[in-house]
Amino acid sequence: MRKITLLLCLLLAGWSVQAQTDYQDVLQKTFTQFDTTFADFSAKTNAGNKLVLIAKKFPEAWAPQYYAAYSRAQLSYFEKDEAKRDAYLDEGDGYLADAVHLLGKETDETHVVAAILANARMAVKPQARYAKYGKIFEEQLASAKEMNPDNPRIYLQHGISKFYTPKMFGGGVKAASPYFQKAKELFEKENRTSMDEPHWGKLTNDYFLAKVAEEEK
Fold it and tell me: What is the DSSP letter of 136?
């Protein structure tokens, strides 16, 4: 009986490792395609939909759910129809909830994506939703920072928020710049290769640093 139990445990462990190996390459390739596509909405949508398909193919792996959630938030910004934007975010909330469930806990990375989803939800109707989702955005980033203050994606999101906030409300280029600079320092320290260790955001941060440099000339 003990031999059978041990054999089953070994088989399950082997299947788990195989599943991770199976999705790593395709997830990396698809996410890179999604994250480096900017002007072509159709291509970005296709890559985002592929991330969803990967999440569906590997329902027991948290990382595919996490990246699917991130993709839904990003794609919502490209839509003009409010109902479609909210539908994207409803999907994103669901995938993120699945990721947290599979992890068995919240992490700094899931808090960051939760903040992104909240910010995207607010962006659908800024005036009507700022009070609720602006608070959630700040709370989620605060939770992420408490868990890991060296996560560059925290400062990237703060910087983006400040960048698009009018100066009269404490935003603008000068207010955003320190966050992007802090994120840059932390991105340079990251040395991750596994999709189970999120390391996205550097390209976006570099883009905003260039925008800041242009504005400050």
Answer: H
Taking phi over 0 as left and psi of -120 to 50 as alpha, with beta for the rest, 172 belongs to: left
Nearest to 86, CA basis, from 50, 129, 34:
129
Q: In whole angstroms, how far apart are CA 206 and each of 11, 37, 84, 94, 209?
A: 44, 15, 30, 30, 5
DSSP per-residue codes, 7-63: HHHHHHHHHHHHHHHHHHHHHHHHHHHHHT--S-HHHHHHHHHHHHHHHHH-TT-HH
CA distance 86 to 79: 10
102-118 pLDDT, tens digit per residue, is 999 999 999 999 999 99
Task: Indicate the length of the chain as a whole number.
Answer: 217
Question: pLDDT by residue (tens digit) across 150-207?
Answer: 999 999 999 999 999 999 999 999 999 999 999 999 999 998 889 999 999 999 999 9
- Tell me the longest C-alpha to C-alpha distance in the chain: 74
